[in-house]
Design goal:
- This protein has 2 domains: 67 residues, no CATH class; 101 residues, no CATH class.
- It is an all-alpha fold.
- The longest helix has 38 residues.
- It contains 8 helices and no strands.
- The N terminus is likely disordered.
Length: 172
């Protein structure tokens, strides 16, 4: 499943950037953190040694670590892990049903999903509440002073971003 997605992303990347060199395209895939050096090397028909050399000599590893350590990237990867796990569970359920088997999901999978959802859901719920409250405030102010509401929008956007970062740092 990961391999098919990898091939698909590599094809899309190649179509979008027809003039891009293999090195540039390899860097983009490497920066996602989703693919091994070997997979990328095979896709762009370069040796693993060449790929490794690019990573080391051009500082891709440090750059990727900085990118992957940001809060937004952590959130993206957590959601991606949840989606992948749910897709696997759904596929297993669909396969069991099509084969006429009705067996329960194993306890390890249920436990993993439960832990992931406990970590992510509270932050999302709190953020939704903040956004709803801010939307109500802007709507209320618009009724009385449209110019003030326009001025507040950028401040409210900044506040929501601040709240998102704060909530993520408390839960992840």
């Amino acid at each position: 499943m990961l391999f098919l997605r990898f091939e698909s992303e590599a094809c899309i990347l190649a179509e979008k950037k027809a003039t891009m060199t293999a090195k540039e395209a390899a860097k983009i895939l490497y920066m996602t953190g989703d693919f091994s050096q070997k997979q990328i090397a095979e896709t762009f028909d370069v040796s693993e040694a060449t790929m490794s050399s690019w990573v080391k000599k051009l500082g891709w590893e440090d750059e990727r670590m900085q990118k992957l350590s940001t809060e937004r990237e952590i959130e993206r990867r957590a959601k991606k892990a949840i989606n992948y796990t749910l897709q696997c569970v759904e596929t297993e359920i669909d396969n069991n049903i099509s084969e006429g088997k009705f067996k329960p999901i194993d306890s390890k999978t249920i436990d993993s999903l439960s832990k992931i959802l406990k970590a992510v859901k509270p932050a999302e719920v709190k953020l939704v509440q903040v956004i709803d409250l801010c939307s109500e405030l802007v709507t209320y102010i618009q009724q009385n002073d449209l110019e003030l509401a326009k001025q507040l929008l950028s401040k409210i956007d900044g506040f929501i971003n601040y709240k998102r970062v704060k909530l993520q740092s408390n839960t992840l």
